[in-house]
Amino acid sequence: MNKQFRNEYHRLIANLHQTNSFIFNYFGQKLAPFDLSVQQYIVLRHLSEGYPNSLTAGELKEKMNDLNPDMTRLVDRLVAKNLIVREIDPQNRRRVNLRLTEESKQFVETAAAHFADFESIVSHLTDEEVSTLNTLLNKIRNR
């Protein structure tokens, strides 16, 4: 065993972290031409799934797998880029809805086209390996 790891469990955690960084950087490079971060893209994708309907920041946060608590700053950046709009809910004035514009919906579709083959990052794995890996990752998260 490599001396930098205390044991195989330590090596596993380091390996998971390194793999997460690899995937995150891979998607970051694909998004660079669109001037988007991975988190911004995920927000846009969630809003595009329900387009033309809107979501509140709380509803959006529930849909995201990211535990980043700073949804306000993320939304502010997308508003500044004119990719989403904030609207006061006519039924409840305390509620603020987030929505894509028609132009930003088309922008998201263009960016999404660059991810049509996003599975290619793991396409060299066999079906059995993918199934086993999915099972093990689920087991880690659902201990």
Which descriptors apply to this entry?
Arc Repressor Mutant, subunit A; WH-like_DNA-bd_sf; MarR family transcriptional regulator; mainly alpha; single chain; WH_DNA-bd_sf; three-stranded antiparallel β-sheet; 3 strands; 143 residues; MarR/SlyA-like; elongated
Account of the protein in words:
This is MarR family transcriptional regulator. Strands 1-3-2 form a 3-stranded antiparallel sheet. It is built from 6 helices and 3 strands, in the order ααβααββαα. Strand 2 (84-88) and strand 3 form a beta hairpin. The protein has helices at residues 8-31, 38-49, 57-63, 71-80, 102-113, 127-141; strands spanning 55-56, 84-88, 96-100. With 143 residues, it is mainly alpha-helical. The chain has one domain: Arc Repressor Mutant, subunit A (Orthogonal Bundle), CATH 1.10.10.10.
Ordered list of secondary-structure elements with their pairings:
Elements: H1 8-31, H2 38-49, E1 55-56, H3 57-63, H4 71-80, E2 84-88, E3 96-100, H5 102-113, H6 127-141
Antiparallel strand pairs: 1-3, 2-3
